[in-house]
Amino acid sequence: MLPRRSSRRVGSFTAEVENGAPLPPPNPTTNLQGDEVKPLSGKPYCLMILSKTNLSPRYAMGPSTSIKLKLPSTMVRTVLTYKGKSWDMVYNGHRKGWKLFAAKGWKKFAVDNCLKIGDACILELMESRNKKIIFNVQILRGDIPSKFLENDTMGQTAEMAIVID
């Protein structure tokens, strides 16, 4: 005996169903992975794709140049917030050249959130004052294939660029 076929409308799509089994209603969160991406609020932000330098062993991280122009040029208490939790650290805005978060605070954030090379952090500047800076953070998981991570020189220069077709 041939299976019974019927067409059912789900959202704006029509699906062929065998044996008339009911389809579950569409759920927009079904395809979300562990990290929820939220719309930005319109405040200044920067996108940082994490490299080996941002993670073990140095844990050197700081906001991009466009955001640095909006930050105080002093050593300032900084708070990164992500998924309802917060991490305290210091922004070293008084330094010439590299203006980074203090390694200890950034390392705690990176380890607590299992950050890896290739992940991206969106830092949205919520508050910037001489006594306190607050960033809301979103994490986008990169999951770079391991064959690209095994060779330290890949992606370091234009000649060794990683090309993904």
UniProtKB/TrEMBL annotation:
Main location: nucleus
UniProt keyword list: DNA-binding, Nucleus, Transcription, Transcription regulation
Region listing for Disordered, in residue ranges: 1-32
Top-level lineage group: Eukaryota
Example of a GO cellular component annotation carried by this entry: nucleus
Localization: Nucleus
One GO molecular-function entry: DNA binding
Gene3D superfamilies, alphabetized: DNA-binding pseudobarrel domain
Stored Pfam families: B3
Domain TF-B3: 78-143
Name the UniProt record assigns to this protein: B3 domain-containing protein Os04g0386900-like
Taxonomic source organism: Abrus precatorius (Indian licorice)
Phylogenetic lineage: Eukaryota, Viridiplantae, Streptophyta, Embryophyta, Tracheophyta
Protein's gene: LOC113859802
